Structure formats: structure tokens, C-alpha cells
Amino acid sequence: MSTQVATCYRHPDRETGVRCQRCERPICTACLVPAPVGVQCVECVRRFRPRAAVLSAGSLARSASVTTVLITVNVVVWLAGLVLTGGSGLFTGSPLAGAAGLSAAPVAAGEWWRAITAGFLHSGLIHLGLNMAVLYMLGPPVEGALGRVRFTVLYFTALIASSLGALMLSPGAYTVGASGAIFGLMGAIVVGQRAAGIDPWRSGILTWIVINLVFTLVVPGVSIGGHLGGLAGGLIAGALLFRRSLPAPAGIAGCLVLAAASFLALLQVAGHPLRG
After folding, report:
1. Distance CA 18, CA 145 (A)
2. How many whole angstroms separate alpha carbon 38 and alpha carbon 93?
3. Single pTM value for the model
4. pLDDT tens digits, residue range 183-240?
5. What count of other Cβ atoms lies within 10 Å of the Cβ of residue 7?
6. Domains of the chain
7. Residues annotated as catalytic (active site), given as ranges
8. Do 215 and 66 contact (CB within 8 A), yes or no?
């Protein structure tokens, strides 16, 4: 029994196993355009996403500079923590962790920077590795769709919203990790896919979010508020940044307002915790 091999609809001489998520036609690597998750063909992007940059697989690496910086900073901070603790780890005993992790009491005392720096600390190598692996997968396509500036605004807006959520539900806990901001990227992907006419259930991103939320609820020690806050921040920021009828500067301004409001609310919650 023989199996027919699909060929690119634009280049019939090229075999491929990849299909456009919108029209389902087979496409080769020269014709695919990264979507927030998955790929589309050049024609569908030009037809349904006229404002989106057409990025080939070859140019994807060049579009991921902010993602690369974020991963590098997280890894460097982790290594710095190992040096400070003599190799015992970052989360416990490190002056860096003690000065930068998120908790209500120090934030209320004026150490506001913890709302951001906590997103670059990790409790262990596995924690760091899992978060960086997901950021490596999700960051480049989102950055490619939004561009460096809007992607940076999205990431830090979700990070601040994540810190707000963490302080709302567990003000006394010591919270670290990039997962809240990464949940924000997931939320933005859902909005971006819907704006591009892609079914988020079909792409798998909603299933992935549900699985991660279940993991958040059942595994002890995971910041429920941080994950939910980041997801909510990413959904709202994504709605502003991916909305075709909204000019890019207006979307950025809206995210900055959201980040500022989340930060002010975070300071209020830190000084007056909702839970003991």
C-alpha cells in the first residue's frame, strides 16, 4: 500500500507535512507564516491579517530578540543565585532572593520593585527549566506577530498583573517565577488567534491552558493568584494589541494604563491584604 506525500500548493516540487491552520492547504517552510500558535500560509495572512508582518521560518529567529533577552536574564539571575549561595540554590538563603522575591510585607514597606523582579527568580532548576522551555516555545511566534515593542509591553503588563493576583490570594507567601507572565502570553495567544480567525480549541492553546490551570490548582506550592492574574492580564492586553481597529500606539497606551492600574492596585493590596 502506498501513501501519497503532500506537496506545497505554491511549490508543487516540494514535499511537506505542514498545513495552513486556516485553509488546510499543505505549505513548505518557505511559505509558512508563524501564527501565535501554529502556522498559516502567506495568502491567508495577506487576506485575513493585512496588518500583520509576514514572517518566514527563516526570519523567525531574528524576530525573537526580546524572548532571547528574557530567557538570558532569567538564566543569568539563576546562575547569580547559585554563586551567592555557594551552589545550594536561589530560593532559600540567597541575598538576591531575599531582596527581590514577592511578598506583601516588604512591598508595603516600599520595596515596590519586587512586583517585577520576582518574575525573574526561580525556586529551583526544574522550575527555571520548565518556564524557560515554555517561554522559548510561545515567545517567538507572539513576538513575531506583535513586534518587539508591543511584545515587551505585553510581557511586563502580564507580569505586573500576575504579581497583583499573587498578592490578592496569597499575600504572605513568598512568590517567584516567570510563569505568571507566561500565562499572560497564553491569554494573548487566545485573543490573537480569534482575531486571525483561528479556533483556539482547534489550535490546542485552550486545552493547554486548561491543563496548566488544573496543574495550578492541584499541585501544592503553585501560585494560583499569580497564574490567574497573569492570564487575565494577558487576555486584556492581547485584546488591546491584537485588535485590528485599534492603532498600535493606542494599544500600547492601553496596556500601559492597565499595567499602571495593576501596579497601584498591587500597592494597595500589599498594604491592606485581602487575606491573612
Report:
1. 19
2. 42
3. 0.79
4. 999 999 999 888 877 788 877 889 989 999 999 999 888 999 999 999 999 999 999 9
5. 15
6. 63-271 (1.20.1540.10)
7. 179, 227
8. no
